[in-house]
Design a protein that fits this description.
single chain, two-stranded antiparallel sheet, globular, alpha/beta, Spore Coat Polysaccharide Biosynthesis Protein SpsA, Chain A
Length: 423
């Protein structure tokens, strides 16, 4: 599947340690995943690079023990704890935030809180150049995954994070496969458009597909716990501090499954999408991304004076300032520093808000927007995919057609990741 490789040095896959590479800490939150967890742990046990330690947080709110609708999750977590107690194949630390009396209390709970607790624990015990790899319990990967991440940071010691390429498994359930293909098409279309605008936030934030050095984690003050989207805010925070790597030789494979453990993300998108509601994950018109690019192109002018663009006017309305760049000019006396401050103000969240707001006024369906984007920016798509666009719909298209589109976008995204490597 991987047509590119940045690493050419041959490594003995049986070697247990490679001293010159960084030590790895694996941060793995677990909730209601006893059936999936063994497969992920098998991937960990099979890794060619052995210089790592795994931290697992089994978690749920403590009040769930007294909730008849949630008691099944508590019991599932208890089975996970029993299973983990028998793991001897690698160095493992289990943080129990699920047993009665040990679960989350108050408003801080969920996968975001679990990731923060895990990474904080690792940060306290790790060395600055050690690497934290964030995983989920439904994710699989090849035996050289840890090695690829270690080498990536060895070759890019100043990078503050790695956004790992991903490719979801499809499953036998047609509803689940259709939903994950539609969701991936949304995500890849979104990222490719950010790439072509030159946006510094052109990365995909998946909790199962990111890594960060301990020194960078400490520098930004750690992860902010959120009920959902903690990975998005975390990577955005890191990107404002430094450069994020986008390429990795080994891809991770999250599971396609209906899950409501978070408020938004892959699982909730699949649940909502399976009912036909994709309003939260539309295929945005390429013209809206062009608005972003148009504003980027006049940054040297904005450094001198504020001009009206659709994006500038939107920003003025959001932050309630007549001139959103006046203080930036006063505080940053050269274009480079002004540009950095501009991107911190117009960050990934603001961009998403702009797209969502402006999309309401745009006519055309998701299918039409996808077709126009593909045909306009990748003319070879028509002869290569042979999609019958006239009658095409996400709801009724054969899964094979959706898979062809997903695969095409995946390949284009991988080319962009490989050529940019770091943002």
């Amino acid at each position: 599947m991987m047509p590119y490789s940045r690493n050419s040095t041959l490594i003995d896959k049986k070697a247990k340690t490679i001293p010159e590479l960084p030590y790895l800490y694996i941060a793995l939150p677990v909730m209601n995943e006893q059936d999936l967890l063994p497969r992920t742990l098998e991937c960990i046990a099979a890794q060619s690079y052995r210089n790592f330690k795994v931290f697992i947080c089994v978690n749920q709110p403590d009040a769930w023990w007294d909730d008849p609708l949630k008691i099944g999750i508590c019991r599932n977590n208890a089975r996970s704890l029993e299973f983990l107690a028998g793991i001897k194949l690698f160095d493992l630390v289990v943080l129990d935030h699920s047993s009665r009396g040990s679960g989350w209390k108050g408003k801080r709970f969920g996968v975001g809180q679990a990731r923060k607790v895990l990474m904080d624990e690792i940060s306290h015990s790790g060395k600055p150049k050690d690497i934290i790899i964030s995983l989920d319990a439904d994710t699989t990967f090849a035996e050289d995954y840890f090695l690829s991440v270690a080498r990536n940071f060895q070759e890019n010691p100043d990078a503050v994070a790695l956004s790992v390429p991903y490719f979801h498994h499809t499953v036998r359930d047609e509803r689940a496969s259709r939903a994950i293909l539609r969701y991936e098409i949304y995500m890849r279309h979104y990222l490719i458009n950010l790439f072509r605008t030159g946006c510094p936030y052109a990365f995909t934030a998946l909790g199962s597909a990111m890594a960060v050095p301990v020194w960078a984690y400490r520098a930004i003050g750690g992860m902010t716990p959120k009920l959902s989207g903690e990975d998005f805010y975390f990577l955005q925070k890191l990107r404002k501090y430094g450069s994020v790597m986008l390429w990795n030789d080994v891809v991770v494979h999250p599971e396609a499954r209906f899950s409501d453990r978070v408020l938004f993300g892959t699982g909730p998108a699949m649940i909502k999408g399976a009912t036909g509601d994709w309003t939260s994950y539309p295929i945005y018109p390429a013209a809206l991304f062009n608005d972003l690019m148009d504003t980027y192109l006049i940054l040297p002018v904005l450094y001198l004076k504020t001009l009206e663009t659709k994006l500038v006017n939107f920003l003025i309305g959001i932050i309630k300032e007549k001139d959103p760049f006046r203080l930036l000019r006063e505080n940053h006396k050269d274009l480079d520093h002004f540009t950095r401050a501009f991107h911190e103000k117009l960050d990934g969240l603001r961009i998403l808000q702009y797209l969502k707001t402006m999309n309401v006024a745009f006519p055309g369906s998701d299918e039409t927007n996808l077709q126009k984007f593909l045909v306009n920016y990748f003319p070879e798509v028509e002869s290569k995919l042979k999609i019958g666009w006239t009658n095409f719909s996400f709801e009724n298209a054969p899964l094979a057609e959706l898979e062809k589109i997903r695969q095409f976008l995946f390949e284009k995204e991988m080319e962009l990741r490989f050529n940019s490597a770091i943002v």
